[in-house]
Amino acid sequence: MTYVPPPNYTAGQTVAAADWNTYVRDNIKALASKCLLYLGSSISISAGLNAQANVANELYDSTDGMGDPTTNHRITIKQAGTYRVFVEVGGCSPSGASVQWFVKKNGTTTLMTRTVTATSECYLDWEFPFIVGDYLELWVQNGATAVTSIAQISRRPATVMAVLGAEWVSP
Amino acid sequence: VTYTAPATVSTGGTSTAAQFNAAMASVAALASRCSMSYEDDPASSIGFTIAASSTAKLPVTMTADADSPDGMLDLPNQRIVIRQAGTYRIFCGAGTPGGNPWTLFVRKNGTGSLMSVNGFGAGVNQELDWAFPFIVGDYLELWATNPNAFPLVVFLPCGTVGDDTTWAFFRAEWIAP
């Protein structure tokens, strides 16, 4: 299911069930496909760790339930299409440490990546095509120095250290 | 009036008026977004002023950049008014005056603070970006506190949004039921 451009109806023509379900139901669902999960407390990241970051809080979700903040900590695509995927992460401590953040599709494919330090934040924002069932996760990899904490993202509330979001933008 | 998951019509059936109206209400929710900004001439570097030791709604004038068909922008009152219930992403920012503390915050219905950010740096914009639930009739305003004993002039472009003439911006966008 995805967005399909609706046709023009002529006067007197009725909307068949299949047309309603395609042009009204599914199109509205596609347009409303938006979800944001976030990390609501700081985490420690040991040296050498390469693992999924469990975004365990949900700010908003579509009515067909894209977000899974409790079990798999991922966003699952329910309506096919191209999505804007965005990530924000606060800087890490202590000084001198750095970590690399990834957005992964289906547990393996890296879509976007960025390295942050104690003095930088990470902001990634781009569009990717997905099919129904694809899922997105936030992963983190630490090289040499153990990270003791992740800072708040400056433009987000005080308890928000990392954000993973997706919103449908086009068929 | 708000978004509801659209109904499925069984093969051979027809949609009811209630189903159609609910679907169109959902479309109205999806179209609920607006943006206003404070624009000024960069050559003048005037910007807007927050009086000494005061908390004030800002800026004194806003420009309508985009609005929903049901009219969320209230320029005379420098407000965004919620017309469709739901969770909205609120995104705003302003240029930061260098070296002096101040606070940018968003108010709902004229009181309190939904979110805030303290500005201290020189030449760094301050932004706020989060989502909150609202009911029809709620309104949002952009406010600032100047704790200094002198007027504070905000005269810098706000950074990631707008162009060199945009000193402040204030946006709302329906995001979920």
Structure description:
The complex is a heterodimer of chains A (171) and B (177). With 171 residues, chain A is mainly β. Helices cover 9% and strands 43% of the residues of chain A. In chain A, the strands form three sheets. In chain A, strands 2, 4, 5, 8, 9 and 11 form a six-stranded antiparallel beta sheet that branches. A five-stranded antiparallel beta sheet of chain A has the order 3-1-13-6-10, with no helix packed on it. Chain A has a two-stranded antiparallel sheet with strand order 7-12. The termini of chain A are close together. Chain B has 177 residues and is mainly beta. Chain B is built from one helix and 13 strands; from the N terminus they run H-E-E-E-E-E-E-E-E-E-E-E-E-E. In chain B, strands 3, 5, 6, 8, 9 and 11 form a six-stranded antiparallel beta sheet that branches. In chain B, a hairpin with a 4-residue loop joins strand 5 and strand 6. Chain B is elongated. Chain B starts with 16 loop residues before the first helix and ends with a strand. The model of chain B has no long low-confidence stretch (mean pLDDT 85). Classes of the chains: A mainly beta (171), B mainly beta (177). At the A-B interface, helix 1 of A face helix 1 and strand 10 of B.
Annotation field: number of helices of chain A: 1
Rg of chain B, rounded, reads: 19 Å
Q: List low-pLDDT spans of chain A.
A: none
Tally of separate helices of chain B: 1
The major β-sheet of chain A equals:
6 strands, antiparallel
Give the tally of β-strands of chain A: 13
- Uncertain stretches of chain B: none
Please, what is the oligomeric state? heterodimer
Backbone structural class of chain B: mainly beta
Q: Can you give the mean pLDDT of chain A?
A: 93
Nearest-integer average pLDDT of chain B: 85
Shape of chain A: elongated
Order of helices and strands of chain B: HEEEEEEEEEEEEE
Distance between the termini of chain A: 10 Å
Q: Using DSSP, what is the number of strands of chain B? A: 13
- Biggest sheet features of chain B: 6 strands, antiparallel
